[in-house]
Amino acid sequence: MKTRDAVELAGRNLRESVLRNSLTTTGIAVGVASLVAMLSLGVGLQQLANRRLTRSGLFNTVFVFRQQRDRGPGGRRGMRGDSDAAQPSSPQTPQQPPRLVDEAARQEIAQLPGVAEVYPDIRFQGELRAGDRAQITTLGSLPPSARDNDAFETLKGSYFSAPAAGEVILRREFAELLADKPESLIGQNVTLRYAEREPMKPGQTTEEYDAGTVGFGFSVVPRERTLKVVGIVDEEPFGGFRGNSDALIPTALAEDLHAAQPAGLREIVGGGSGREQYTSLVVRVSSPSGVQKVEDGIKQKGFGTFSLLDATKSLRRFFTILDLFLGIFGSLALAVASLGIVNTLVMAILERRREIGIMKAIGASDTDVRRLFFAEAGAMGFCGGALGVALGWMIGRIINAGTNLYLRNHQLPSEQIWSVPWWLVGGAIVFALVVSLVSGLYPAARAARLDPVQALRYD
Amino acid sequence: MATHPHSEQLAPVAAQNAVAVEVRDAARHYAMGATLVRALDGVSLTIAAREFVCLLGSSGSGKSTLLNIIAGLDRPTAGQVTIFGRELAGMASQELARYRRETVGIVFQSFNLIPTMSVEENVELPLRFAEVERAERSGRTRLALDRVRLSHRVSHRPSELSGGEQQRVAIARALVNRPSLLLADEPTGNLDSRTGEEIMNLLREFNRELGMTVVMVTHERSLADRFADRMLFLADGKLVPERSERSG
To answer: Poorest-confidence range of A73-77, A183-187, A352-356, B243-247?
Structure first.
């Protein structure tokens, strides 16, 4: 008998005893639903944890700075190590001349696979004045993508309206120094005073300090700029990991300001190239698991790097174990359901004994009979699986809605703790099918073994 | 009797040997508790191709057992059964199923139609097992139903038909795979005498027109007298001369 015929006959047999077969199928569906529910909870929690870690911006970031060649194993070897090519390199990094962290480096790193974004970490001293109050502080800079950082979940006001907008976000603690009610500052203008680094024009000379070996390469000019306060933030973005700054401006604006940074001092003492350099670059990697590869690639190019150990790795291990146990608990219901299939099919054999005898008498082989019962088990498994996935998905939606209601009542932002990925949908249906086919093994073999003469005598 | 228009299409495809059925010392013993039941006890017979043979005997005489063995539904405990030159005893169960599918058509006393299927589906079922192409199936099903004059009831369920009609569906089902050997186990047993005669006429028609060898089990001597070419009598699992057959 061809498979299509077997499926067709199985389908009509299942329709003949609708109640019993739909009860059995529902049993499988409940089993699959519990499996899907358990696993989607596991997957959802894992994604939630991953999302939180990613939004913290700590685990998908590589910091790039100029390699510190002058700190070899023998301790400090002097201040001019940068140009000393005879330095032994550390075993981890191949011997490369130290590279300048400048615009060219930024472009080059941005080309590496897995890199989502590269931007300079610009940090400088400045004075902010609001009305009659003024405070000297450190200003930091952030690109538009930092909007997703968890620090901004409780942002009062808004994030920067444009990549280079003349806007500033203040930390609450700092804003309290400028105004009694920090929120009142939102929408107000503040004045920023800072030191601009003005490069020397070609041919321009500086005063020589030491026989013409050291040059400044740039001069420092005081500037003023008016900025609009758009937001007040409670926490330091990135957990304060990138150094404290009380006021945040868009990265593109910070670049535009050409504020003098600590890195500029290196040029004063180390013979600068005259080109503007960054203190460090921040490399955002597409996923935490890609950090190691990107970091290695950057090291290869001769830069110094720093990143936090990929915390998601141990998280993944934890969740794999959690998923395994949730899966086992979920499967228990399916195991019970599989007994239902065995029972239904064994009953069907008793009931259809005569029919099996007739089929054998008119030419059905043992294989045909076995295939027919197998197809019935498979059909119940498939339908149960599909129904179960839908049911599991619905349970998930309900629990998710319930959780969010609870979170909202406690003034907490809503969260997606539930996730049914496609592999789980496909996997659950295939699993239900396999379990059903395995359950069908015994009844099918029993039906195939039936002696046609005895079966025909049976009334 | 007029030749049926579809005679050629329904004619058996198997080569016609001179001998259709040859049974040598066939025995079928069952253990029933401590006693050994000799349902068949050393039967030897030969049936020629295109012959219409009736097996007569009272109940328990072993005639159904013999028919089941010829049908390949049962295996003899001892002896040989050769159908159109092929020995059944040596066949594996798959081969035996194939033999039932291709060489034999069986009709039972209790019709044995599948109640949940329509007339058409019942007749089509052997074609599914024989893996006949879908396109060819409906044509052959119609032809077989035509042959038993039931073309107008294809979508009915067996329970909606009279006994005679049900038996005609069963005959169409037995016919649809173009068997060389038609076996009938008391085909008129559940029918009134007029309907029974209709069925016997059909069997006779197939025997004559399609060249099918017919082996029929019955206990109705009168029917056998009128339709069979030859009668064989069984009693206590043995072939007996006509006289010692206890009438049933």
So the answer is: A73-77
b (16+ CB within 10 A) / e for A284-320:
bbeebebbbebbebbbeebbbbebbebebeebbeebe
CB contact under 8 A, A12 and B100: no
Contact across the interface for B74 and A453, Cβ inside 8 Å: yes
Give how far B243 is from chain A: nearest CA, Å: 30
The pLDDT value recorded for residue A104 is 85
Of A12, A359, A453, the CB nearest to B68: A453
Shortest distance, CA B194 to any CA of chain A (angstroms): 27
CA distance A45 to A49: 6
Q: What pLDDT, in 10s, does the model give residues B126-145?
A: 999 999 999 999 999 999 99
Q: Distance, in angstroms, between B186 CA and closest chain A CA?
A: 14
A367 CB within 8 Å of a chain B CB = yes
Residue A268, phi-psi category: left (phi > 0), alpha (psi -120 to 50), beta (remainder): alpha
Question: Which token pair is A191?
Answer: 């004045």
Whether the per-residue pLDDT at A268 is higher than 60: the answer is no
Summarize the confidence of residues B157-171 as an average pLDDT. 94
CA distance A186 to A184: 5
- Please tell me whether the overall predicted TM-score, pTM, comes out greater than 0.80 for this model: no
Cα B64 to Cα A458, B39, B112, B187: the distances in Å are: 15, 9, 15, 12
How far is residue A48's CA from residue A68's CA, in Å, rounded to a whole number?
38
Q: Do A363 and B117 touch (CB under 8 A)?
A: no
pLDDT tens-digit map of B6-31? 444 555 544 444 889 999 999 999 88
In angstroms, the CA A227 to CA A392 distance is 52
Question: In 3-state terms, what secondary structure has residue A227?
Answer: strand
Neighbouring residues of A49: CB distance < 8 A, sequence distance ≥ 6: A315, A319
Looking at per-residue confidence, does A105 or A98 come out higher?
A: A105
